[in-house]
Design brief:
29% strand, alpha/beta, six-stranded antiparallel β-barrel, 3 domains, 17 strands, SH3 type barrels, globular, Rossmann fold, Elongation Factor Tu (Ef-tu), domain 3, 361 residues
C-alpha cells in the first residue's frame, strides 16, 4: 500500500474521524472530505440543527488539522436534492415510506464522492460505516459482511453497492465496536470523541416528515377519512402522507381498543386502521434488486431477511420472479411490512443483496 491514497468522507462525527486515523496508521496518505448536501435555510431549518451545520464542518476540519491531512468541502447540494430529497418527497406523496439513507449511500457517498476520489487519483474512498468488505479469491467478486459490532451494523443501508463501488471502498471500523471507536477518539484528543450519534434523517432532524414536506413543497396536504376494515368512516386524518404502516401513536382515535395504520389509498385520500393482527403478512414482493456475491439470483434460496434496519432478521426463502423482482416468503408472519422500505437478505454474516419492498402478501 506504499504511496496509496484514500479520500475519507468526514461528517464531523467520531466514526469518520477514527476512520481517517486508522487509514493513516495503515500507511495510507489521506485527504478528508466533507460533503455539503444542503443549506438548512433552504429547507426551513435553523443553521445549527442538522449534520450539515457549520459546527460539523468545523469538527471535521479540526480533526483533519490535528492529523495533519488536507480537508476539503465538496458542494453536492444539487445532486442531493435531486437524488435524495426529491425521491423522498415523491415516495411519500405516492404513499410509500422511503429510506433516504440508502439513497444517499447509493448516489452520493459511493457515486459522487467516489468519482471525486478517482479524479483526485485516490485508490479508495473511505467512510465510517460499520461493515466489512472482502474479496472472494475464487470468484474474484467483492463481498460484504456484517460488522463485528452487531448493534452498530449498517449493512442494511449498503446493500445497493455495486462491484465497482466495493472494489474502491474501505470500511476500517468494520472489526471494531462503537466503544472501541470512542476510546480511540478520546485517546487522540478528537474534539468529537463524545459527540452524540445522529439518530434522525439529516434533513428532517425533528422527525416531523409532514412539516418538512409542507415546507419543501409549499403544499398543504388535505385531511380525509380514517376507515375501519369494513370501510366505515371512524375519524378524520390530517393528510395521508402523515402516516406509515404499523403506526399507532398520533391517530387521535378512540375505538375501544388499540388500532394501527393498516393501509393507505392516496388517490382516495383514505387511511385504513385496524387491530394489530391485520399488520402481519408472510410474504412480500420487492423490486430494483441488487446482488453482491453473484450477478443475479437464479433459483430459490434460504436466507435471513430484514425489513427494517432496527428489526432482527427472520428466516425466509427468496425466489426470483421472471421480471427481475423477487418474492420473499417468511417462515413466520412479519409485522408491518412497509412499501418503500428495503428488504435486505443475508446468509449468516454475508450480505446477499436486497431490493425495495413493493407490496406485502
Amino acid at each position: 500500500m506504499a504511496n496509496q491514497k484514500a479520500l475519507v468522507g468526514m461528517s464531523g462525527g467520531v466514526d469518520s474521524s477514527v476512520a481517517v486515523l486508522l487509514m493513516l496508521r495503515s500507511g495510507y496518505s489521506c485527504i478528508g472530505a466533507t460533503m455539503r448536501l444542503y443549506r438548512n435555510e433552504d429547507i426551513g431549518l435553523e443553521e445549527s440543527r442538522t449534520c450539515c451545520s457549520l459546527e460539523d464542518v468545523e469538527d471535521a476540519r479540526s480533526v483533519a488539522r490535528r492529523l495533519g491531512i488536507p480537508h476539503y468541502v465538496f458542494n453536492f447540494r444539487d445532486d442531493f436534492e435531486q437524488n435524495v430529497i426529491c425521491r423522498f418527497v415523491n415516495a411519500y406523496e405516492q404513499g410509500l415510506t422511503p429510506n433516504p439513507c440508502i439513497e444517499c449511500n447509493r448516489y452520493l457517498k459511493f457515486d459522487h464522492l467516489l468519482r471525486r476520489a478517482l479524479e483526485l487519483e485516490c485508490d479508495y474512498v473511505v467512510t465510517g460505516h460499520y461493515a466489512r468488505i472482502r474479496r472472494d479469491p475464487e470468484s474474484g467478486r467483492y463481498l460484504m459482511f456484517t460488522a463485528t459490532d452487531a448493534g452498530k451494523d449498517q449493512t442494511y443501508f449498503l446493500y445497493s453497492m455495486t462491484q465497482h463501488q466495493l472494489s474502491y471502498t474501505q470500511f476500517p471500523l468494520g472489526e471494531l465496536t462503537k466503544a472501541q471507536v470512542r476510546e480511540i477518539a478520546q485517546e487522540n484528543g478528537f474534539v468529537n470523541a463524545r459527540k452524540r450519534d445522529s439518530q434522525d434523517i439529516c434533513f428532517v432532524p425533528d422527525g416531523d416528515y409532514v412539516a418538512f414536506l409542507e415546507r419543501y413543497t409549499g403544499k398543504r396536504y388535505p385531511c380525509g377519512p380514517f376507515l375501519d376494515p369494513q370501510g366505515n368512516r371512524v375519524g378524520t386524518h390530517r393528510g395521508a402522507v402523515a402516516y406509515t404502516i404499523g403506526q399507532r401513536r398520533g391517530l387521535g382515535l378512540a375505538m375501544g381498543e388499540p388500532v394501527y395504520v393498516c393501509g393507505k389509498d392516496m388517490q382516495a385520500n383514505t387511511v385504513t386502521v385496524g387491530p394489530s393482527e391485520m399488520l402481519f403478512h408472510r410474504s412480500l414482493v420487492a423490486k430494483d434488486c441488487n446482488w453482491i456475491p453473484f450477478p443475479a439470483l437464479s433459483s430459490p434460496m434460504a436466507v435471513t431477511a430484514k425489513t427494517r434496519h432496527t428489526r432482527a432478521g427472520s428466516p425466509a426463502t427468496v425466489t426470483p420472479l421472471p421480471d427481475g423482482r423477487i418474492r420473499v416468503d417468511f417462515e413466520a408472519p412479519q409485522r408491518a411490512i412497509t412499501p418503500g422500505q428495503a428488504v435486505v437478505l443475508y446468509k449468516d454474516d454475508l450480505v446477499l443483496g436486497g431490493g425495495t419492498i413493493e407490496s406485502s402478501l
